[in-house]
């Protein structure tokens, strides 16, 4: 059961600068008044009534809190405290200051497969722990794979944003159409019962992108992307995979499988010879192969541009809504101000897009 503290968060933490803003709140840097330790405060607006369109449903936040409180692992962001007021919930999370893994890699001039494998291994270790506790993330993508810091010679991976995560109960089916089109599994599109294998599909897509700088199923529209996924339409184009080892391709092939039962689990991935070489020849092959860093840099730059464009577009739409409602809307002075309180009026379930606040 999720534990929420009724006290005022500002009695325990000094609220500092904004680290990021999302659809339903903000992430701010906070400092523990007792220890001086810095954390990340995730301030989430909560709906006041069932018919309200402002904020998140408390039950959804409660589910995320329960999951985070159950997941204590070096490769999963740590939840320290949860505070609740009349209009918001504040999650006090581990401060992950190293930025996104993909941004870190894009700054390099070259990267061997063996170096990339170190990051993939940490992601798999986090997933193995999650899945052993019957929890799936359901929103694995570059934006949710962070580094604890950039200064360490061996940066530590942190999986974040468990807003779409689900804790499975025995004998109970779960279906969802939430996620980001590029990374969702076929069973999500088909609205079939889901399991932890959906996360493993996402790992296959992320690994494909990491090695080549190319998204395997990306179309010109979301609908085209979804069709490509259902048709399992992808290939290892030589132009992008000329420096990729055969073992790496085999690793991806065993994840981008239409039947969830036939996909490798996180535990099986960790035993795959690409991750854990069995022979000296396999180890040498990894060290001689590298990711397509030039193509990867282009992919990451385009990804960041698209994120910025979507944020500006969302802010402009919100500003227009506020102008339209200015005459009739009276804000509650007790509510904390936030850059975006309003749900996306243009959200379409068919697009399978569901934006969440990223830490």
TrEMBL record:
Keywords from the named record: ATP-binding, Kinase, Nucleotide-binding, Serine/threonine-protein kinase, Transferase
Coiled-coil stretches noted in the UniProt entry, renumbered to this chain: none
GO cellular-component term (any): cytoplasm
Pfam families, A to Z: Pkinase (PF00069)
GO biological process, one term: positive regulation of apoptotic process
The organism's place on the tree of life at top rank: Eukaryota
Keyword Ligase: no
Entry keyword Transferase: yes
EC nos: 2.7.11.1
Record: residues binding ATP: 42
Domain called Protein kinase: residue spans: 13-275
Membership in a protein family: Belongs to the protein kinase superfamily.
Protein name: non-specific serine/threonine protein kinase
Species assigned in the record: Kryptolebias marmoratus
């Amino acid at each position: 059961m999720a534990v929420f503290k009724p006290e005022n968060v500002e009695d325990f933490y000094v609220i500092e600068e904004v680290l990021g803003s999302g659809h339903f709140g903000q992430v701010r840097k906070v400092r523990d008044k007792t220890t001086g330790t810095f954390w990340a405060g995730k301030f989430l607006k909560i709906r006041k009534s069932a018919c309200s369109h402002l904020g998140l449903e408390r039950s959804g936040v409660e589910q995320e809190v329960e999951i985070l409180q159950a997941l204590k692992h070096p490769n999963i962001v740590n939840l320290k405290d949860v505070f609740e007021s009349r209009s918001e919930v504040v999650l006090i999370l581990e401060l992950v200051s190293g930025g996104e893994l993909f941004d870190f890699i894009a700054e390099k001039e070259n990267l061997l497969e063996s170096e990339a494998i170190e990051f993939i291994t940490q992601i798999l270790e986090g997933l193995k722990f999650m899945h052993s506790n019957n929890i799936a993330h359901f929103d694995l993508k570059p934006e949710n794979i962070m580094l604890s810091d950039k200064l360490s010679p061996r940066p530590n991976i942190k999986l974040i944003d468990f807003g779409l995560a689900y804790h499975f109960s025995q004998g109970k089916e779960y279906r969802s159409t939430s996620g980001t089109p590029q990374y969702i599994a076929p069973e999500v599109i088909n609205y079939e019962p889901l399991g932890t294998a959906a996360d493993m599909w996402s790992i296959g897509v992320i690994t494909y992108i990491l090695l080549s700088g190319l998204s395997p199923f990306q179309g010109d529209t979301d609908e085209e992307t979804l069709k490509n996924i259902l048709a399992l339409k992808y290939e290892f184009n030589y132009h992008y995979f000329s420096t990729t080892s055969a073992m790496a391709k085999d690793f991806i092939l065993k994840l981008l499988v239409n039947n969830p039962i036939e996909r490798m689990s996180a535990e099986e991935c960790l035993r795959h010879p690409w991750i854990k070489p069995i022979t000296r020849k396999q180890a040498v092959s990894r060290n001689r192969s590298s990711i397509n860093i030039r193509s990867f840099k282009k992919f990451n730059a385009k990804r960041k541009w698209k994120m910025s464009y979507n944020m500006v577009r969302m802010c402009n739409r919100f500003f227009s809504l506020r102008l339209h409602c200015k005459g009739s809307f009276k804000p509650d002075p007790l509510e904390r101000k936030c850059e975006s309180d309003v749900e996306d009026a243009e959200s379409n379930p068919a697009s399978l897009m569901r934006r969440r606040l990223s830490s």
